[in-house]
Structures are given as C-alpha cells and as structure tokens.
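Section: Multi-chain targets

For targets with more than one molecule, the full set of components is provided together so that the structure can be written out for the assembly as a whole rather than chain by chain. Components appear in the order listed by the source. The example entry contains four components.
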Amino acid sequence: MTSQNTKEDNINKLKKAGLKVTRSRCKILEIFQSSPDEHYTADKLKDMLADSGETIGLATIYRVLTQLEMADLIQKNNFDDNQSAYEIKKSHHDHLICTKCGNIIEFVNSDLENLQERISKEYNFSLESHVMTLFGNCNNENCKHLKNK
Amino acid sequence: MTSQNTKEDNINKLKKAGLKVTRSRCKILEIFQSSPDEHYTADKLKDMLADSGETIGLATIYRVLTQLEMADLIQKNNFDDNQSAYEIKKSHHDHLICTKCGNIIEFVNSDLENLQERISKEYNFSLESHVMTLFGNCNNENCKHLKNK
DNA sequence: TTCCTTGCAAACGTTTTGCATCGGT
DNA sequence: ACCGATGCAAAACGTTTGCAAGGAA
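Its structure, encoded as tokens over all components, is:
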C-alpha cells in the first residue's frame, strides 16, 4: 500500500501548514479522509468524534476547520442551509443536491471548467475559484428519509 | 410605457400569492424593482427603507423576504458571507463576485444552462434549479474600496 | 520552558418567534 | 369584524472570542 493518507502524511501536512500535530487535528483530518465524498458540518463532526470516544469542544472544531481550510486541506461550502458544510479538498468538482433527501453527489466536468474560463474572460475577470450547485431530485429508491442531517 | 412594474402589477402579484397588499410589502418590492441587478441583505433594505422615510422592523423585513421568495418574486443567495443576499427573480442567471471589492456581476449563458442539463441527465437527476458563482478579481479601476457592504 | 492549543462560557451577528396591537379586506 | 400583518423584545441559531489551563515542541 502506497496510501497517501497514512498518519505520517497527515503529520507532514499539518507541520507544513505550521500547525502543531494535536490529537484533535489528526482525528478530524482522519474523519474527512475516511469518507472523501462526505460533507460534514461542525456539529456532525462533534457527534462523530463523540461516537468514537473523542470529546472535542465545538469551539475547537470550528478553529480546526478554519485552519485546515486555510491550509488548503479541506474546503468550505455554503449551500442553502444556515450551516457550512466542509469536505476534504480535491481537484475541482461541483455538487448535485437532492432537495428531497438532502443527498449530495459530487461530479467533475471539464467542459464546465472551460466554460467558466470563457465566461470570466468575457467580463475581464481573473477567475480564482467557483461554486456550482445543481438542485433537484436524485430519483433514488431510498430517497424517503427527509433531510438526513 | 407598457412597463411591467407598475404598482398595479405588484398588487396583482401579491394577491396572486395570497398575500395582503400592505405598505411594507409594496415598498420592499419597489426597492427590488428600482435596481434589478442589485443584491440586498435584510439590513441593507432596512437602511434604504429608513432613508426613504419608512421605518419597518427587521422582523417584518425577514418575514416579507421569506414570503416573496416563496411567491417566486425574489431569489435568495447564500454567497460566502454570513448574510443572505436577495435579488429580484429573473430568468436563469449566475454571478461573478470580486473577492477584492465585493462587486457582484450578473451574467446569463445558455451554454451553461445546456451543460447543466447534460450533467443532470448523466446522474439521473431531475434538475430544479442551480447556483453558479465565479470568484476572482474584477480588474476595475475603482476596485479599491474594500468590501462595499 | 515556551507558546500554541484547548475547553468553557460568554459574546456575537443574523434570523426567527411570541405576543399584543394594528390594518387590509 | 375577521384574520393576517406588524413591531417589539426576547429567543434561537451557528459561529467566534477571551481567558485560564493543558499539551506539543
């Protein structure tokens, strides 16, 4: 296994960002890596940490999330809710969100990336980043549980 | 003038939505119509209303915004801030946002609309709506005022 | 030992709600 | 006259911050 996500790697990533290697930061990073497509709110993280026996204060979680975001290890999303959803940083990608069950699907589309560049040029705009989110119904069988949070 | 935005029209729109035609709702609608490309926070609306001699409580503004949104007369945007920005509902369009000065530019692009449909189909997804926001620098001369709010 | 990190509680800013009053219809 | 709409104040909510105690280097 030449996994990119060993504990060693995380230690290096944190050090590189000038952050001390603490239990909280490692545990949080590991959760993100355990399900790379999942989106986590601060609250959800707190619950998951609690479930695995780690009691970490919400304040710390918010602080860590901010730091990991600045270190470019995770990405913050402001979807339609009042809560921010974080996910591990990957190459450019966007989201489909089911308005019935809240399910989030990620996708990558290079045509989209190109189109964004074209549009930016049209407005003499220097593109830094983007967000694109499609809302609709996922048409899955198990789209019955309303808003899994 | 065969304007679509007479007071008569607004009265009809409100009635159609099952809302009483009150001073607050009319004034707020008029502000949105006076600058169709502008984006307003609840706070900003309160200030503008105050400037024109209308003192309307923030609670009412939020209630009206929610109702106008449900009536499909305005649209709510959750950009990167903590505040929601509302604008009058137009045909599909998206945003370029300057990360330096906060300036918001609207654009419409039919290629984008088509591409969204293609992507949705790919995931067996029934598209209802979308959000696309490009962040970058607007390269305007007057891009010096940091974050005009 | 140093300074960063954490927990707790309190503060914060935005949005929502309860309730009495007001105003369309 | 009825019932929805409003104002005010208080509550709720997610997030941030101050401070004292704890932990990595």
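Residues 58-70 of chain A form the longest helix (13 residues).
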